[in-house]
Design a protein that fits this description.
The chain is α/β, with parallel strands linked by helices and 383 residues long. It contains 14 helices and 14 strands. The chain folds into two domains: 188 residues, Periplasmic binding protein-like II (D-Maltodextrin-Binding Protein, domain 2), CATH 3.40.190.10; 146 residues, Periplasmic binding protein-like II (D-Maltodextrin-Binding Protein, domain 2, 3-Layer(aba) Sandwich).
């Protein structure tokens, strides 16, 4: 299907809407040519390109055809995608930043806890809302960093969210019989579950259903959760990546999968008869982050902030939802019917999140305890 034409806010429009012009005489310029907010009074010289790390495949293609295409048309600055593995890229960029080198990428899409960690280290360049006015429109509960205060620059932004529902083969299991985390232990599901290899996909749902607060005595406070997950092994058929889960759902080798909502949509698109069910005792919600690296030239930093506005443009967000199954954070975006008809699995507003007892990823805890908790999950599930 042809991707719709994107109408994003142009750089000129951004500057006009915020009162910046080459002939500004409002007295807000400092001697260095910036306003009192630190935003240049005039757009700086354009860099020859912006390099942005992203996942290869469909995500790279969709963002290239939408946000990047419009950004380049408006500014003349091409986007060059770096599709290095996320962990390898993160380690490489951190080594460059810590040693005082110019980072090999200007900005990254990556797991949110990595953006949070680097922001805490002072290794990110905040995004000024004057350069990305769409920040004022987004659902802060899912788009904003933890403890973000309105009016402040954004340390990073989550352009979309994912959820982790139960993905049920309707030809093998009645979806109404798999509604809670405890339902996964039913004998009729013996050797029938596919589970995501990332601990967070299951850990926080089980924790909420058990009354365990991950913030209490971390990391050991989650030990009852690992014990409970270990009891799931008789029903486990497969532990795998998103691609593995999609394959298992498509060929019918499993009855139920616990994986992100994108896996379910991919399985549906491949012809699998599946339904996405929001656990009634807690749906895990998480967003990936877009963040800008410290140590890049000022003009690159400026336009990397401008690019954030294109990521949040409602028409870009609409295409991303349609093509990738990612949940928009801009409420002005339109979504596919399967999203609008199933707000339990695809919550967008603060009210939606509350209605599904959403477990918004506890990013500060994850940033500190990821490695320990992943090892505990691996040990419990038998990896």
């Amino acid at each position: 299907m042809r991707i719709r034409r994107i109408i994003a806010v142009t750089v000129v429009g951004i500057l006009a809407s915020t009162g910046f012009s080459a002939c500004s005489s409002n007295g807000s310029d400092t001697a260095s040519g910036t306003t009192s907010t630190g935003v240049p009074s005039e757009p700086p010289a354009k860099p020859d390109r912006l390099v942005i790390r992203i996942w290869s495949g469909d995500q790279e293609k969709v963002y290239a055809d939408t946000a990047a295409k419009k950004f380049t048309a408006d500014t003349g600055i091409p986007i060059v995608w770096d599709t290095t593995d996320e962990a390898v890229s993160y380690a490489k960029l951190n080594q460059e930043i810590s040693s005082g080198q110019r980072p090999s990428a200007d900005a990254s899409f990556n797991a949110q806890q990595r953006a949070y960690t680097n922001a805490a280290r002072g290794w990110t360049i905040p995004i000024d809302p004057q350069l990305a006015p769409n920040l004022a429109k987004v659902t802060a509960e899912t788009a904003a960093p933890p403890e973000h205060k309105q009016g402040e620059p954004w340390k990073y932004v989550n352009p979309y969210t994912l959820t982790v529902p139960f993905i049920v083969r309707t030809d093998k299991v009645d979806p109404n019989t798999v509604r809670t985390w405890n339902d996964l232990f039913k004998p009729e599901l013996a050797q029938s579950l596919a589970v995501d290899t990332i601990y967070s996909s299951t850990a926080f749902g089980f924790a909420q259903s058990m009354g365990v607060d991950p913030a209490q005595n971390p990391p050991q406070g989650m030990d009852p959760v690992w014990a409970r997950i270990g009891e799931l092994k008789p029903n486990l058929a497969q532990l795998g990546s998103n691609a593995d889960v999609v394959t298992a759902l498509t060929n019918g080798s499993v009855k139920v999968a616990i994986s992100n909502s994108g896996s379910g949509i991919q399985a549906q698109n491949a012809g699998a008869p599946v339904a996405l069910v929001a656990p009634s005792d807690g749906l895990y919600v998480v967003g990936d982050a877009y963040y800008i690296h410290k140590g890049i030239p000022d003009n690159n930093a400026y336009y990397a902030q401008v690019f954030a506005n294109y990521l949040l443009d409602p028409e870009v967000q609409s295409v991303v939802a349609d093509k990738l199954g990612l949940i928009p954070v801009n409420p002005d975006a339109t979504v596919p019917k399967y999203m609008s008809d199933n707000k339990g699995v695809f919550p967008r507003s603060a009210d939606d999140l509350k209605a599904v007892k959403a477990i918004v990823a506890p990013i500060p805890l994850m940033a500190k305890n990821d490695e320990t908790w992943q090892k505990a999950f691996d040990g419990a599930i038998g990896r």
